Amino acid sequence: AARRPGQGAAPSRMFSYRREGGGAPGRAGTARFLARHNTWGFVATRAARGKIQGMPYGNCLLLSDGPINNSTGIPFFYVTPKDNTVTDLLKNPMASLTLPEADGNFCRKNVIDPEDSRCARLTLMGQMVTVPPEEVEFAKQAMFSRHPVVRKWPRSYEWFFMKMNIEHIWLQNWYGEVSPIAVEE
């Protein structure tokens, strides 16, 4: 296509919009933003049952990284052993958790499909563990402050809290760009 006078080449990241909510700039800042503002994520496990044993299995789960004013970056979950994902995790705790930017307003506000590569995706990998007794009160505050409805879920489902001990962090926030981020960041 012909360019009009004064029209230069499109700058790289032309469609890279600034995320609302501030936070630290860069990849680690984007990762923290996604961990803080996502209320659900996609957990992938290795199936531990029946004909699909050993195959990949995934499920969307509610999560919280802390009470509203105390974001920790550690995802907490309120789960039941009746969920196939939890059955898998109790046999093999290794999992990945993908947090899409689709949960916020960025993609919608900029008229970008949530599956477009400009909408960031954060993938956390590590071990899912039962929250130890000394952290249960914090886990309750984290989940119940962000998801009040879970308090009303049927008690007969034996709900308990899990969290992910993060070992690896990967962020995709542009076409083909998948970047590892140090856990310390």
Automatic annotation (TrEMBL):
- Look up the domain of life of the source: Eukaryota
Domain (CREG-like beta-barrel) ranges? 27-185
Gene3D superfamilies noted in UniProt: Electron Transport, Fmn-binding Protein, Chain A
Spans traversing the lipid bilayer: none
Q: Which GO terms describe its cellular component?
A: cytoplasm; endomembrane system; extracellular space
Q: Where is this region: Disordered?
A: 1-25
SUPFAM superfamilies tied to this protein: FMN-binding split barrel
The record's similarity note reads: Belongs to the CREG family.
Cross-referenced PANTHER family: CREG1 PROTEIN, PROTEIN CREG2
For this entry, the protein name equals CREG2 protein
Organism of origin is: Pardalotus punctatus (spotted pardalote)
